[in-house]
Amino acid sequence: MKKSFFKIGFWISIVILGISCASKKVAVIPPPVIVPEVKMVADNFDPDFDSAIEKKWVDSIYNTLTFDERIGQLFMVSAYSNKDSVHVKAIDKLIQENKVGGLIFFQGGPVRQAKLTNRFQSESKVPLLIGIDAEWGLSMRLDSTYRYPFNMTLGAIQNKKLIETVGIQMGEQNKRIGVHFNFAPVLDINTNPKNPIIGFRSFGENKVNVTESALALMKGYQSQGLLATGKHFPGHGDTEIDSHAALPTITFSKERLDSVEMYPYKKLFVEGLASVMVAHLNVPSLEPKPNIPSSVSHNIITDVLKNQLGFKGLIFTDALNMKAAKNFREPGEIDLEAFQAGNDILLCAENVPVAAEKICMAYQDSLITEERLAYSVKKILKYKYKVGLNAFNPITIPGIYTDINPIKNDALQYELYENAITVLKNKNDILPLANLENEKIAYVKLGDDVNSAFVSTLKKYTEVTEINDDDLECLKDSLQQFTKVIVGFHKSDKAWKSHAMSEKDLTWLTEIAKNNITILDAFTKPYALIPVTAFDEIEGVVVSYQNSDIAQIVSAELLFGAIDARGKLPVSINEQFKANDGLTTTKLNRLGFTVPENVGMNSTTLAKIENLANYAITKKMTPGIEILVARKGKVVYQKSFGYYTYDNKTKVSNANIYDIASLTKIIATLPNVMQQYDQQKITMETPLKVLLPMFNNSDKQDIPFKDLLSHYARLQAWIPFYKATLDSAKMPLPKYYSKVANAQFSKQVADSLFMRNDYHDSIMKMIVDSKLLPKKEYKYSDFTFIILKDYLESVTGKKLDVLVQEQFYKSIGMNNTTFNPLQRFAKDSIPPTEIDTYFRHQQIQGYVHDMEAAMEGGVGGHAGIFSNAMDVAKMMQMYLQKGNYGGHQYFSEKTFTDFNTCYFCAEGNRRGVGFDKPQLPGTSGPTCGCVSLTSFGHTGFTGTMAWADPDDELVYVFLSNRTFPDSTVNTLSKENIREDIQKVIYEAITK
Predict the structure, then answer these.
(1) Other Cβ atoms within 10 Å of 108 Cβ, number
(2) CA 690/CA 713 separation, integer angstroms
(3) Closest among 131, 139, 140 to 100, alpha carbons compared
(4) Among 201, 211, 198, which residue's Cα sits nearest to residue 248?
(5) Element (H or E) spanning 509, and its range?
(6) What would the DSSP string read from start to end of 62-91?
(7) Cis previous bond, 234, omega within 30
(8) Could you write out the DSSP letters of every residue in 228-285?
């Protein structure tokens, strides 16, 4: 009885629907009396509804749809936000007349797409499913959006939680612009290096790695309500034909396909994969009829995918306008066959009206049943419910760009490349590059794409010389003087650009490797290295996968040991390197680079620094500024503001070097003194007469070392030594100065001004004879470090400028730090410090501003160093790491702790031994008052500051030329600009 009732109800429903395929008249909605009959049909459909509410909504919507509207739900048509009004109106028509169920967006922009989505949704009776093919993020299709690494890059990452985070971020961004389906992840196992269409889009050649990576990405998507689509079923990884152009053939057996190609699908089905996209492939082992695309194969889709594998999610065809499909059947016919084969959604139909007509006629001819139609349409409606289309709200347009491009995108990108970049060869532990004092490094570029981020980052670690030459023999000659050669192979990061090595690249690489100790760093997909025959000659091989700026920065970090190597090769490179190869390397505790969010800081808060810097420049407190912030071993902020002078002609940059004034004390003199202490050549109680015998029998002979360096020795602040060498008109006396250098006058003070060599003795005698202050209290004095310079030179037998280079700068990689910079650098790379009208009577540029240091030929224990923020930060990081940097232990942790102790705080003296320390309660001082008591640093007269905080693992460097054009007014200090910036830095700390 029930079966009879069902059959009668079924045929009555068809009649009432009033199907007329030829005329395409609007069908009549079934009257309520028939609803139970339709419902009975639906009862035979098992949609696995998650709730009764979901089922009720699906049934209610389905029962309101006309026959044409039901057919329309099957189509997801191509839409573009970068096309003209003709295209937009064509989509309008498909929605309004053909009742299509969804759109797949291609090229355009996020805001334009969101606006069009709102328009199209407003025209549709049932809200549209919106899809996009965005495998590496929205930037695969849309401008002004973020680009994540390709899947092959992600496949090198062993920490799959990071890939899940990629999926989460992609999910957030897709949802923000109204997208419900992303046609990803790619589940193809790329076992064929010649695959023209998958390749880098695959996570690799190992089925387990592909599965784990894709699963992580899927979980990320779907946790945000963005539904994932596994593709390209049953497996597009071993083809040499692009299915956009023709029909590829997969020759594997059923057993091989089941155990390898289908392995990821089976695993992801268990984990809740929402949908599958079926490829256009000829698979004879699964479809015996010749040259039948898998996308229209009932055997593959219904028998294998649905029945054998038990998949119950949505099934999409691959785009039906691809030649592998369109060459098989005409538009309309291909759509009908795809639906009959078991697909739910027909993607990118070429002619929707014709396709709908074909499906309608097939229905009339009983080739398609109501049950079959209901099965797919209700499944589509079910997923519309799942993505919230039961309560659709238009997309909010304002704020889209900001919302989909947050700083956390870059934060994750750094982590991804830190975990992906792979070291494949490391002969004799060439990596990381250590012992920089023994190295002379060259860089040679191969490939045809940009390399500026890589080269500039390399140069932040040590001196690296770019060698460019169009002639190979000349290049080889130039490289003979270098101990190591880094070859960077840079190819376009655009997806479909050729990544192949040219014959010239291969020849040059072979010749360079044959004659030099060589490190090859490939910023391209691994397959590009297949033609390389010189691997035996290459000492270090690194695969960085892509040529993005962040990839280049992180790769340079790895070469110098700021990070360790963690990546594993996702695909094989001939017999040389196999999938899952990847060496670990040692981390050398050098500064690296990232964004603030990766070290528990807030970029938006740090951006306030710019306002303070520009305020200082606008108010003419200083013409130029460079500021650096590092935390937890990573530089997170480095920026320059202003110009060399107030004429605003030459902008300052991070490459400029500044006169850092009294920072010289802790950047040059103090670390060498600490080594003497570490070697137990001095103690905290060593008296001054032992340090320098010239103080024997003076009133200063018994000053302890600790008191001397704590500015607690009753010494005068300073003596204007230069005044004794000037005439009554304040001009240099010929007795002391010469306009040309000679054997007697070799200490250059300024342009065309040289001091007599023996005047240093007079300076030291004045210090020895100077009166002690009557009261023992904190009094800052330059004498301390003038004295220490003499001490160091006497016990080491080396001049301070030579000593500090040998002991610290060369091995640390402080290649922009020096006394007398004009001996190494062009004058136009150095902002001027003053227009001197009282001593040297010229613009001071490239010569030390401090008068006594100038009289010493530019080398003072208290002043004279020129540097940039990056180099200063290296020394501060070395202190922060208690004497360790770049694999060197320069002095013991105990030595650092002894020097970073305030021994006289109880007496009201905040100073450490050589270091400045935070101000004591109720007093003024050098910091914002928000630093820890363990913090330390120094300030300089030219408007400089370097401060480190062990508690917060923080380094702050501020450089300026505030003394230009006149040093007498120090508004920068009076307005606490350096301190206010430091306060912002601490406010930016989030954890």
Answers:
(1) 18
(2) 16
(3) 131
(4) 198
(5) helix 503-515
(6) HHH--HHHHHHTTEEEEE-SSS-HHHHHHH
(7) yes
(8) EEEEEET--SS-SS-TTTS--B----HHHIIIIITHHHHHHHHTT--EEEE---B-TT
Closest CA to 147 of 551, 644, 498: 551
**Inter-axis angle of helices 370-386 and 35-43, nearest 10:** 80
Rounded CA-CA distance 400/415 in Å is 25
C-alpha pair distances (Å), 764 with each of 642, 711, 777: 39, 18, 23
CA dihedral 113, 114, 115, 120 (to 10 degrees): 80
DSSP secondary structure string for all residues of 709-778: HTT-S---S---GGGGGB-TTS-B-TTTEESS--SSEEEEEETTEEEETTHHHHHHHHHHHSPPPSS-S-
Give the pLDDT means over successive 10-residue stretches in the chain (991 positions). Answer: 40 46 43 28 51 95 97 98 98 98 98 98 98 98 98 98 98 98 98 94 98 98 98 95 90 97 98 98 96 97 98 97 90 96 97 97 96 97 97 97 97 98 98 98 97 98 97 97 98 90 97 98 97 97 98 98 98 96 97 98 98 98 98 98 97 98 98 98 98 97 98 97 97 97 97 97 97 96 98 98 98 98 98 98 98 98 98 98 98 98 97 98 95 98 98 98 96 98 98 89
Q: Are 964 and 975 in contact (CB under 8 A)?
A: no
**Cα of 480 vs its chain's centroid, Å:** 34
Provide the annotated active-site residues. 244, 318
Asked whether the beta carbons of 708 and 783 are under 8 A apart, the reply is no
Give the pair of three-digit tokens for residue 320.
Answer: 């039906």
Which residues have C-beta within 8 Å of that of residue 16, sequence separation ≥ 6? 28, 30, 31, 34
Residue 493 token pair: 């990061």
Asked whether 317 and 295 are in contact (CB, 8 A), the reply is yes
d(CA 942, CA 963): 5
| Global pTM exceeds 0.85 | yes
